[in-house]
Amino acid sequence: MLNRVVLVGRLTRDPELRYTANGAAVAKFTLAVDRNYTNQQGERETDFIFISVWRGLAENCAKYTRKGSLVALEGRIQVSSYDNQEGRKVWTTEVVADSVKFLDSRNSQNSDNNFGENNMGYNNQNQQKKQSSQDPFQSVGKPIDLSDDDLPF
What is one cellular component GO term in this UniProt entry (predicted)? Predict the structure, then answer.
């Protein structure tokens, strides 16, 4: 049997980090993932998926991601239930992630979201990229200047 999930999306809120009675860290957040098709009105719909991350990975997610961060994760679907106050059974579904890749660079989070120190060199590069991106076809046929840090893999 196989229960594997791979998702790429953006956090809808900052991760909520807590610790169990045994001291294990757990972070919970919601991931917004766009669907590959549009609805009848021509709009893309988005799924909001509950994510749980455990131990050191939970602490890293809480430390290095924020609302709006782009992440790729791999994990498994977990379904559980509990009885609510009226005595009815409530079912919950979440993804328990065992691998999370941060797809935003730390520099882009620092400059775009005001996290950490100000990085003027990156801001200047970012301004130049924004100005040159007015015409998306102006560099067709020219070599692309990319560093390894620009690649998401």
Answer: nucleoid
